[in-house]
Amino acid sequence: MKKTIAIIEDDEHIGNIIEKNLWREGYEVVRAYSGTEANYLLEKQKIDLILLDLMLPGLSGEELLAQIKDIPVIVVSAKVGVDDKVSLLLSGAVDYVTKPFDMKELLARIQVHLRKDEGLRKVDMYEFGELRFDEKAQEVYAGENLVRLTKTERAIMKQLLKQEGQVLAKSALLDAISFDTPDCTESSLKQHISNLRRKLKEAGGKDYIESVWGIGFKLVC
Question: Mind listing the domains of the chain with CATH numbers?
């Protein structure tokens, strides 16, 4: 699943260069050119990492940083003072890159912090369309209806929900659930998927799982 990175930068030329390289690396990109616009953007869209300039019109980068919660922020600024860097890192930024910067270094730092955040972030609810999985309660719902699943079926459902409608290869699915459900093998996966598809259809009234020939499976809503 693609990660979405927000570029909050009022210099259009710098923002364009960063955006071009992020697209080339396979990231989704959204842009904001002021602190006020960024604040609105962050309320409306799921963002995985933020590249934040400090000298923004309207709400400043420092003011915006104080309002951002649970999203890793890399400050990208021309300020070079050690005190500035220390203050921003203590205020919640995960990293600080000084302008002008090397694009390869910036991309490497983005990759590192996305990897760290993936390991730290605890998700309790996975949702896609009418389907949701409450991990704390270990309950799956199709609309308002509880779907009674086996441990293996819940593990499969979780992985499909994490893909949010993207195709999940059979091999990747088996790897992802192998620790919790070692009983699920390549030969038995088809039956588990069949049972899961039937139970979801009984609860929600339609077929939520699509088989992609030769590759794997995906959820549809």
Answer: 4-120 (3.40.50.2300), 125-219 (1.10.10.10)
